[in-house]
Design goal:
The chain has 203 residues and is of the alpha+beta class. The protein has helices at 2-9, 132-138, 141-149, 171-187; strands at residues 14-21, 40-51, 54-66, 72-95, 115-117, 125-129, 153-166. It is built from four helices and seven strands, in the order H-E-E-E-E-E-E-H-H-E-H. Strands 1, 2, 3, 4, 5, 6 and 7 form a seven-stranded antiparallel sheet that branches. Strand 2 and strand 3 form a beta hairpin. The termini are far apart.
Amino acid sequence: MRKSVQKYRNDPDWHSYRTRESGDWLTQFGLPGHPFGTFRNHIHHVLEGQVRGYPTTLFHLAGVRKGGRYGTLVHSYSVAVLTLPTTFPDTSVSVGTLVYRLRNEPLPPDAGTPTHLSAGRDPRMVKCSVDPAFAELVVTEPVVRITVGATMGWRLHGNHMLGWLKDRKPYEKVVGLAETMTDILAEFPASAGAWEMRDGRHG
């Protein structure tokens, strides 16, 4: 990890590095939706810069929930967050094995009423949106295929897109995750950018 940190701190595309952040810092990304813990979250190795023109934040997450033999269970992820030029309805798509053990809803409670979409494939997926019509527009077979191929999850929250991989990965892998997220966004039809959020937050 030290070599990865050193490499990216010297890269002009990456302008900020922090060894850790407080759990409160995550509220901007929607808690306690996937992949965050419901009890406590620890954030390390925060790197900020750009990937393919999108402002991007990378970090390692340890999400904690109550339960298990020792009172708590910890789930580790590598996370990339893209800042988007528009706001989309809260939507989440993930390979099921990445999120089943979190035992919480894919979307944060303040996102609205979630509708779970049919899993319908192997490996099983977790798909959810506050706006099923929007999800039908953007969660196409190519998007699902990219998600499965990368063994990843992703979520739209406001003007952010979050993506996650299991376990702590070197930055090279997390940058690759962010690039895959831009590939998913490229599959969204042009009409998605003008979508009106039905709860009135975007019009």
